Amino acid sequence: MIGQLLIHALFGLTVVTTIMYALAYFRRNPSLAGAARQMFGLIAICLVACASMLVVNIIQHRFDYTYVYSYSSTELPLHLLIASFYSGQEGSFLLWTMLVSIIGVVLLPYARKQDYEAPMMMFYGLILCFLTLLLVAKNPFAYYYETFAAQGISVADVPNNGRGLNPLLHNAWITIHPPILFTGFAAMSVSFVFAMAGLIKRDYHRWITVALPWTLLATAVLGFGIMLGGFWAYETLGWGGFWGWDPVENSSLIPWLVSVALVHTMLVQKRTRGLVKTNMILAVLAFVMVLYSTFLTRSGILGDTSVHSFVDPGKFAFWILLAFMLTFTVIGLWLVLSRRSDMNVRREDFSPRTREFMLSIGAALVMASAVFVTIGTSWPVIMEVIGQPKVAVSVDFYNKVHIILVPAILIVNALSLLLQWRSTPGSLFRRRVLTSGVVAIAATAVAAILGIRDVVSLVLMVSAWFALVVNAQMGWNFAQRSPAMLGAYVSHLGIALLIFGVITTANYTEAHHAMLPQNVPTKVGDFTLTYLGSREIDTTFKDRRKMEYLVRIERDGAKAMVAPVLYWSDFNKRQSPFLEPGIRWGLMNDLYVSPKAEPYMDGISEAVTIQRSGTIRVPVDTTRTLTLERFTMPMEEGSAQDGRMQMAAMLVATDAGGHRDTIKALTRITMGENGPGFDPVWASIPGTTIGVGLVRIERNNADPSKSLGDLVFRDISKDAREVFTVEFSVKPFISLVWFGVITMVAGFAFSIVRYLRLSKQQGALAGTDLTPRADGKVSESEHADTNAEQT
């Protein structure tokens, strides 16, 4: 009850704080701003307290709370119990809200020093108003009996265990990926609120310097979070890739692309004082796309077209999400339009042979990518609106679009670095392009000789080499003169490396479908694979029998062991298996073994159905018959050593001479929500080497004489061999993808530190009359920044 009351109280506090900040700004009341500051700190403390309470409830297995029941269980280890905190709608909203408040606490002294606190925080507070209202609608402290009252559940009805966590989330990355992604989402609000504050203050230039470090931070963190999700998919899902253009994956990518474009146009404005309205629009759009992605993911409208989307949150939460998005879209566009005449200052056309022109073209290309991804992601919604079947666009749509856009972005990026601000001598530009271009073409020619024949891959290769050579050369020059300015070049190097990883993986991956008999070395491509057997893991979970399958990989005397996993779970009612690949990680290549099916026994016949009192002929020896007398009951057979229930088919075997023998074909039964599973114990048919196994029982309680069973047969004189079906892939240089992402984020870190220092230098002048204004006069602080901005 305390948690529910606190959530409701927090909504009221955020509304009051937002109003106080608005009054503090418009009435120029510093004391009111001070009181609002204290209240905001209290809000952050209360949100941390709410999150802590939820985590404690989960760890203590308080299944009287609906959220705890829905996303945790007593079997989960501590790290997965903590991850349960944000694995559902309510908990993830709480995490997002808490992170927004924590970033706000860090932001407050910075904004205050820059003379931006009150106008910025009134918008920031409004964001928190909507987030806390969402928590009111999707309260993580709702009681189990409240949620299921319509089913006759009372206060006394407390479940003994929870439903548990989706088995796909039973991974170490669940503790890292969502918090980083939500931190990126939370940080994306900062550039928006600074832009809105700039519009309110009619300060159309200095907000760029103030917001730039935070925009870089949000872009870096969100980008890192997105690629962590790709790594998680590669490591866990078993389909061999890291990006599938799933609509919900795309919904995180869209705001990141807009933010990347914003970073580059902000640099253009910082240097040239151009693109003023463009930056305002992009700052609005970046945040609105965060809200749009949240709406797509959380509203349930993509539920039929994405493997990631949440279930329908209910009408109240749906309309709050929609209002959240529309409110900030309207506020942002209204402020931009109302100030558009003020922002028409120092307008100038960029010469094509300048860095600012190329940066603008590059940003436009990135935005084109964002537009196409938005169209593809929204396609199911568009189809539903016009009354057509709700289907997602194919992966080919995204690939074909980016076959054009990615090389163009890489080339434009490289050209922008070869150009200077304002103007570039033609001879200097041609010399720079020629030097880097020759190296790129030569490197691509080598790749073609080594086997890349696909035209698209060659175009990507030459553009990536061009970008890599230019960034490496420029980065080396700045490393010797001004290491603090390395950030952009390092980030761009990372992107080029990522593209190289994609190209080499796409063109050189060798994939083989293989059937591996147990303990029999099998040649697969240039490698020898041996299936060694299986073992059960994660035995604490009763809803599944999780097996890992040991596969040895050999080549030229070198050996590696991998352990792919395949199992069925009651969580999805055993409708489809859960697969996890076995990976031998390497710098030069990854060896990737993905299971395709549970092992089967070699030499087993097709199943034959038999009815009680019925007779069948043995498929592998038609001179013999089997008659089913009855099925024994579990109480007759007792339990197996592993605790499983046992039943048996009592059979009468008759040979060609009419001799009869009684046989008991035992089977061990694993119970699940989607029906029982049967593990036969082979029984010998006397006078033969034939074994019979019971693999299914279909009881007819109304008429036991109509009960059915399925029997299978094999030669038990030979060792039974399991056969494990896998897909074996060799993925060359996929490590470049992960190394490229890390390099890109490291470059962002360099830039964040640099621009924080610059903003602090200019912050010292924030309270003077030297602040840039709408009349286009250049302040002393603007002149003081003589560093050449880089992308």
UniProtKB/TrEMBL annotation:
Bias kind Basic and acidic residues: ranges: 772-791
Domain of life: Bacteria
UniProt keyword annotations, A-Z: Cytochrome c-type biogenesis, Membrane, Transmembrane, Transmembrane helix
Region (Disordered): 769-791
Pfam family, one: CcmF_C
Positions of transmembrane segments: 6-26, 38-59, 93-111, 123-145, 180-200, 212-233, 253-268, 280-296, 316-337, 357-382, 402-421, 433-452, 458-479, 486-508, 733-753
GO molecular function terms noted in the UniProt entry: heme binding; heme transmembrane transporter activity
Domain Cytochrome c-type biogenesis protein CcmF C-terminal: 322-594
Membrane as UniProt keyword: yes
Entries under PANTHER family matching the protein: CYTOCHROME C ASSEMBLY PROTEIN-RELATED, CYTOCHROME C-TYPE BIOGENESIS PROTEIN CCMF
The protein's name in its UniProt record: Cytochrome c assembly protein domain-containing protein
